[in-house]
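tool=predict chain=A
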Amino acid sequence: QVQLVESGGGLVQAGGSLRLSCAASGRSFSSYFMGWFRQAPGKERTFVAAIRWSGGNTYYADSVKGRFTISRDNAKNTVYLQMNSLKPEDSAVYYCAADPMGPPVVVGGYRHWGQGTQVTVSS
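tool=predict ok
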């Protein structure tokens, strides 16, 4: 049974940084896409970043390119989202997702989801 547990959210001032972690367990994720999505109150869940576990191909939403970096640690079975130069509009619940097939940049491409972690950026 796939389990994804996010951590690292919190309150930060605009311009600051946070690193989110997603601890994955329950199977081998070597062929999986691992994604980060976010959902603000009253809005749809949207793509942020994704990585192919094997090979390390990465994908980013235009709104976070140059500011966010997705990476994975094979030994720890953990995916990270380093978020720099944070803006108030980055405030949302951030979700980790996993799927062997994708596509990696849409909500429908993932069958496994974590519970989410709140990120709040104050102006």
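The CA atoms of residues 96 and 120 lie 17 Å apart. The two ends are 40 Å apart (CA to CA).
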